[in-house]
Specification:
Blueprint (H helix, E strand, L loop, with lengths): L1 E2 L19 E2 L5 E5 L5 H20 L11 H5 L5 E9 L12 E8 L1 H10 L8 E2 L2 E9 L2 E4 L6 H14 L3 E2 L5 H6 L2 H6 L2 H8 L6 E11 L2 E10 L2 E9 L2 H20 L8 E9 L4 H12 L4 E10 L2 E9 L2 H11 L2 E3 L27 E6 L2
Parallel strand pairs: 7-9, 7-10, 13-17
Antiparallel strand pairs: 1-9, 2-6, 3-5, 4-5, 7-8, 10-11, 11-12, 13-15, 14-15, 16-17
Helix pairs in contact: 4-8
Protein name: DUF2066 domain-containing protein
Pfam families: DUF2066
InterPro entries: DUF2066
Length: about 375
């Protein structure tokens, strides 16, 4: 089932044993932080901290809060606040020692204003539609390996929810019922048998799959090896921590770093490229406006200019952060457009027929071919 995290009510589309195909995330423009008191200076200090957390979520980039382009803007965080409210939270202490409640500040920021700021500073915005990622985990303790049911392990859940909550990432957990147990063995995870992992994962229809192999290497010390399966690629990394939760949290953060680099490329003038996109099924001004707004709502699209008009299609000249693949990945998550390429042919083949030759560059730049999903 698809889990939500407790960080400012992040909500995901819930899927259990069905087709996931991306998840819509809400709560990206809000954060809850501790605040010392209700005086203006204390509140503004907390708002700045909340703003930093929001910037990380909506760009996917953990280093953005230290970027010099945003240093002055972060200090002016209160101007982007839409609303805020206080609440008291009672802290639970294992020893049952009485402690005073902690004052928290919940802050919501203006989505349009924050997006405008980031684009003005040259940063991509990672939209609400994000890749639903299935996570398979296995642990090894005292030489014994087992598949993990995350919901049943408090430490693992803590690490998972901390990382995904801070980054605004939707994750799926396998049900680990008889069907899963028959489809995937512990040895498949530890052996990195991609075919078996993908077959078992197909039940959930994820956009990406992460596997984690967690090993207890000493008292309170854990090491983890991770693999991300994304559109035919396998990417590897490792993590470690003084607790199981810390090792899981660090590993999931690194996995999200990879996903963010694909779906929301880091800013840079040399990272902006031109892509032509032909959209069929546009028969009136209403559908034209809808697709124009849709394209400009994609975090990596900087500009969308009209290049050519046909009776039932429009070709746009886009300026995007990243490359053609990044745009295709964003489109695949939205559910608005579907490939319009002939069966068995890549959607980015140079257009023929009624598609105008003037949309091609001198080097024969390809045109992505899509149509509005019925």
């Amino acid at each position: 089932m698809l889990l939500s995290c407790a960080s400012f009510a992040l909500l995901f589309y819930v899927v259990a044993g069905g087709t996931a195909m991306a998840a819509k995330v809400s709560g990206l423009y809000g954060a809850e932080v501790m605040v010392e008191g209700q005086e203006t200076g204390q509140r503004n200090k907390a708002i700045i901290e909340a703003f930093k957390r929001v910037l990380v979520k909506i760009t996917g980039n953990r280093g953005i809060i230290d970027h010099p382009k945003l240093a002055k803007d972060i200090r002016k965080a209160p101007r982007y606040v839409q609303q805020y409210r206080y609440r008291l939270v009672q802290v639970e202490i294992p020893e049952k020692v009485a402690v005073p409640p902690v004052r928290m500040l919940l802050v919501s920021f203006d989505e349009n204003a924050v997006n405008r700021l980031l684009r003005q500073r040259g940063f991509a915005v990672w939209g609400h539609m994000r890749p639903a990622t299935l996570v398979w985990l296995s642990t090894e303790q005292d030489g014994w390996r087992t598949l993990v049911i995350p919901e049943a392990d408090e430490l693992i859940m803590s690490g998972l929810l901390t990382a995904t909550g801070e980054r605004g990432m939707p994750i799926l957990f396998p049900l680990m019922d008889l069907e899963d147990q028959a489809a995937l063995q512990v040895s498949d995870i530890w052996g990195g048998f991609a075919d078996s992992i993908q077959r078992a994962s197909n039940r959930y229809g994820p956009d990406a799959v992460i596997t984690g192999r967690l090993v207890k290497v000493g008292p309170g010390l854990w090491r983890a090896d991770w693999t991300l399966y994304l559109q035919g690629e396998e990417l590897l990394w490792d993590s470690k921590g003084d607790s199981l939760a810390m090792a899981v949290e660090a590993g999931i953060h690194s996995g999200i770093d990879v996903l963010a680099s694909r779906f929301a490329p880091i800013a840079g003038d040399d990272n902006i490229g031109g892509v032509h996109l032909r959209v069929a099924g546009i028969a009136d001004l209403r559908s034209y406006a809808r697709i124009k707004d849709y394209l400009m709502g994609q975090g990596i699209v900087e500009q969308a200019a009209l290049a050519f008009v046909e009776p039932d299609a429009v070709t746009y000249a886009l300026q995007v952060r990243g490359d053609q693949r990044a745009l295709e990945q964003d489109i695949s998550l939205s559910g608005v457009l579907i490939s319009d390429a002939p069966e068995g042919i890549d959607s980015s083949i140079p257009p023929t027929g009624h598609t105008p030759p003037e949309v091609l560059t001198d080097s024969g730049e390809a045109v992505l071919r899509y149509r509005i999903k019925p």
